[in-house]
Amino acid sequence: MSGISRRLMVSYVLVTIVVVVLVEAFVLGYEVPRLVSNAQLQAEVRATAQTYWSQLTQRYPDGVPSGILLGDRGQRPNPGIAQTTSDGTLKVPAISGAVSSRKAVTAIVAIAQDGTVIASSIPSRYPPGQMVASQIPSQAAAAIGAGLFKGVFGGPGSTPYGGVDWTLYAAASPATPPGKGPHGTFAFLYVQAPPSSGFVNPIQAWDEVRQLARSDLLFYALLLVIVPVGVMFGVLASRPLVRRVHRLERATVAVTEGDYTFDLPTSGRDEIGRLETNISTMSRQISSALAAERERAASEARAAERSRIAREIHDAISQHLFGLRMIASGLRRADPDNEQVQAIERIAEEAERDMQALLSELRPSGLDDEGLAPALEKICAGYRDRLGVIVDADLTDVDVPEPVSHALLRVTQEACTNAVRHGDAHQLTVSLTRRDGQVELAVRDNGTGFDPAASYPGSGLQHIRERVAELGGTVHIDSEPGAGAAITVRVPAP
Length: 494
Fold this sequence. Notes:
Blueprint: H1 3-59, E1 64-65, E2 107-111, E3 117-120, H2 138-145, E4 152-159, E5 162-170, E6 183-184, E7 188-193, H3 202-213, H4 217-256, H5 271-334, H6 339-362, H7 372-387, E8 390-395, H8 402-421, E9 427-435, E10 438-445, H9 460-470, E11 474-479, E12 485-492
Parallel strand pairs: 8-9
Antiparallel strand pairs: 1-6, 2-3, 2-7, 4-5, 5-7, 9-10, 10-12, 11-12
Helix pairs in contact: 1-3, 1-4, 4-5, 5-6, 6-7, 6-8, 7-8, 8-9
């Protein structure tokens, strides 16, 4: 398993644990009050009633003194919330004063047989001597009115201060009505507690759930399930990501090894998808740049080789031809009627002329900072000066991209060389103009001409067509035997 998979797996496990713990905390915080109200709280209310009944009957065998304050004096009043003790009973605060809150409170009330209050833990709401029926749930009031003296009654109910869980603990037999002596004998003991609402402490809530479930197995089982679930989600979530990263890794290895021909598909629109697109674009650009660099190096190598060959021809063969022509010229002057000498002189002159044309092709002029028109003018000047060819040049200075300038320069060199070497031309016309978003180059000669549809050895015309086609241009050749030739090239140049 890769490092990314491990990290994602661990992160999923941790995140899952945190999420589950948080969810448990919130669920417990909001659900435990309901659970306590429906089960635990009712049991606590009943246990509290039984405990206080036993304590009061033991402490006051002659009857509970009227008006005493019941409950625990050390407890703070907490309206709306029921608090429990370690023994499973409720904390009943003794509240001597008034309660400003309109919420129900945990309370205990000793009630006589006729339904009057003898004593309570909150006299401001259950005053001694008053009827209790209006302050307690209707079910409890009905049980008191019916004189039910056996058993324990209770359940959820409503009071003027909100809903409560209540228990009415009744004596086994009718008791002496109050007012017969200094103490009142209670027939009923009423205990109530408000069901908890809102959010409570999750730790306290968990303790309550443990008391209800009496087991921690559920919690620990849930934690044990979290780990494999987190591992599963981590593996499933990391697999596509790791696969994409591995593709990127292989692509970068290919780049470092010099392979720029790989195909890296884009697998999305996220950061990795954009990285895949950028790497593919970069590889294509590098491949194109390397191809252009190789082509440039090859072109420079060819140019250097052609220059070397031109130097060798100029230094050796041209000198021999010049010497042969000079000897033939001397022999012709000594013997004017010698036809063989005249032929030798004529052939030497033609060979020297062809050699000069070949040298012009092997060692062509190049583009410089002055632009295309000056470079074409140098080609024309070379044919005038070296070969004595009449060249009429009508060159407009046009601004075109470097590939277009380079192609038009080579086309001019090829056309002029073919006219002089193969067409035996003595006069050339070279023009360069711009028309309707196109650059037009025309080379015309007065040579022997040729049939454009026929096949000829060599590839000069084919090279011209290929160069122009690469630029999206056209080539038109107008020629016939004995009528010279005209080559017109048009290339787009907006």
